[in-house]
Write a structure and sequence with these properties.
Copper Amine Oxidase, Chain A, domain 1, single chain, alpha+beta, signal, 23% helix, five-stranded antiparallel beta sheet, NTF2-like_dom_sf, Cu_amine_oxidase-like_N
Length: 397
């Protein structure tokens, strides 16, 4: 909710890596090793569910994750382990090079193996994934796992901050917002307050978990679904955000920083309904400069394209980049819909436009539909566009 002024960023695609892997060639020693395991100070007898291969300790997956407080499932077709509790969701495949923890990738080469009809997981690997401190004592030949996460009481205290955050938003309480920030906060409170005055929103927290925890700092991941209630232009969105919290002298948790991890816009058609009043002459001029920009792109005219842009230090570099791009790409861009969603009453506005682009790169053809947000500014009586346009959506059709 504190990122009402949505992030201007280009989102790169994520390479999908297969969970399914080939069977490990490693052989697990079936003899019961002389290795002791302690969980939170209590010795655990794993019996034949614990084995050692070349000095590395493995435990049968269901036994290990149950011990750590997880439920488990096993997908036979892909040979994928699924372990989960209220805070963590883990997927890892036999022979796979990566695992997933709450959707984030971690390396898992050699950590999940199949042998003697059973599936085994590296003990240190599983401990690290589940936020346990793993220690080895060569003297006693023992492994210690100590959970590093919060107690139920500590977890409740952390989550209480986000309950307050939702109440502040619902009450449209700008003054209450300041009380949510830590004394050393990295957030620019003034900017947030300015956006607060412009737009009222409603946020639903769809999911949350504590990524790391200590006595003075907690890092929490939230999945937030935020919609506009009233005010100026705001694109409804579903975002994943990382909140870093600091514990203050009074013992209360407060927000030090917020980082956007991912964002998707949930109501593109609704954005085009957020049109604002603007003099016809200015609206026509902004529409014309964008049309000129698209015409220049279609004609591979880098000079014409640059002529539609506001000045900025990298303008000449962009011209070179455009020339190289136009030389290797055949492209036809058409405008499907456009409107003005922000206007300051004189010389600044924001253009929202949807386009269809047909691209041919070395004989490979594709069609992409895009939704773009572009700042416009009147300079010496002429409207020009910012080179830093925001691509809200790209969909290949």
């Amino acid at each position: 909710m504190f990122m009402k002024r949505f992030a201007i960023a280009l989102l790169s695609g994520i390479l999908a890596l297969s969970l399914a892997g080939t069977a490990s060639a490693a052989t697990v020693d079936v003899a019961v090793p002389t290795v002791k395991v302690a969980l939170d100070g209590q010795t655990v007898d794993l019996g034949t569910n614990l084995s050692v291969k070349k000095g590395k300790t493995f435990v049968e997956y269901a036994t290990l994750f149950k011990l750590l407080g997880y439920e488990t499932e096993f997908e036979q077709e892909t040979r994928t382990i699924h372990a989960f509790n209220d805070e963590y969701d883990i997927e890892a495949s036999v022979g796979g090079d990566i695992a997933f923890v709450n959707g984030q990738t971690v390396y898992s080469t050699g950590e999940v193996i199949a042998e003697n009809g059973r599936t085994w997981v590296g003990l240190r690997f599983a401990g690290d994934l589940t936020n346990h401190k793993v220690s080895w004592s060569g003297k006693t030949k023992s492994i210690s796992l100590v959970f590093q996460g919060p107690t139920e009481e500590e977890r409740a205290a952390v989550y209480e901050l986000f309950n307050k955050m939702l109440l502040v938003e619902a009450a449209d309480d700008k003054a209450g917002f300041a009380g949510l920030l830590s004394e050393d906060t990295a957030i620019n409170a003034k900017e947030v307050e300015e956006d607060w005055d412009k737009t009222k929103t409603k946020t639903i927290i769809e999911d949350k978990y504590i990524e790391s925890f200590s006595g003075s700092e907690a890092v929490v991941i939230l999945v937030e679904n935020t919609t506009k209630v009233s005010g100026e232009f705001f694109p409804d969105n579903r975002s994943q955000n990382r909140y870093t919290l600091h514990k203050e002298k009074d013992g209360a948790w407060r927000i030090y920083d917020v980082e956007a991890i991912a964002m998707e816009y949930t109501d593109i058609p609704g954005m085009f309904k957020q049109t604002v009043e603007i003099p016809d002459a200015d609206k026509a001029a902004i529409g014309q400069v964008f049309a000129d920009q698209m015409k220049a792109a279609n004609e591979k005219n880098e000079d014409g394209y640059i002529a539609t842009l506001l000045d900025y230090p990298g303008k000449e570099d962009l011209k070179t980049t455009l020339a190289e791009f136009f030389a290797s790409t055949a492209m036809t861009v058409t405008t499907d819909e456009w409107t003005i969603v922000e206007y300051n009453g004189s010389d600044k506005a924001t253009l929202l436009v949807s386009t269809t682009t047909e691209v041919d790169v070395d004989g490979t053809k594709s069609t992409v539909k895009s939704v773009i947000l572009n700042a416009a500014e009147k300079v010496d009586g002429k409207w020009l566009l910012s080179a830093d346009a925001t691509v809200l959506e790209n969909e290949q059709v």
